[in-house]
Amino acid sequence: MKRDADCIFCKIVAGEIPSQKVFETDTVFAFLDIAPVKPGHTLVIPKEHFATLLEMDAALAGPMHEAVQKIAAAAMEATGAKGFNLQVNTHKVAGQLVPHVHYHIIPRHEDDGLSLWAQSPYDSDAAMQEVADKMRATITK
Ligand code: 5GP
Ligand code: ZN
């Protein structure tokens, strides 16, 4: 299993940095975020070190997803939340500070003051078509 000696999340998995662990399997580890957006904010990570979602072994997607389903339900139960957001910040530009892939589970309540990002339509159908064409040409199967 790959490990990065300088990675704080690898150290948390190894127990070298303390954490409020809420769930663990042979491949997945989950613990409370030290600076939560809301109480119950949980980080779900593969035990193995992968810098971002793009490098993560796709075989871990199933175990990660199963963990998210269990932990999100538990976080809602524990905090009285009525929903949650699942977010994976990828690369610095998207807000990723810790380079060990992690899924954020953020419990949500009515009128909790949080908002999602602003959206707006494409300038034209052609502009939308152009982006879709470029993506289709790049995606490998
Ligand atoms: P990112 O910005 O990389 O998507 O999220 C990293 C998250 O890790 C942040 O929400 C931050 O609060 C959390 N975090 C950073 N260091 C520690 C730590 O040592 N322990 C815990 N429990 N959370 C941490
Ligand atoms: Zn790591």
UniProtKB/TrEMBL annotation:
InterPro entries: HINT, Histidine_triad_HIT, HIT-like, HIT-like_sf
Stretches that traverse the bilayer: none
SUPFAM superfamilies per record: HIT-like
UniProt domain HIT: residue ranges: 8-115
Pfam family of the protein (one): HIT
MF terms (GO), sorted A to Z: catalytic activity
Name of the protein this chain belongs to: HIT family protein
Source species of the chain: Oceanidesulfovibrio marinus
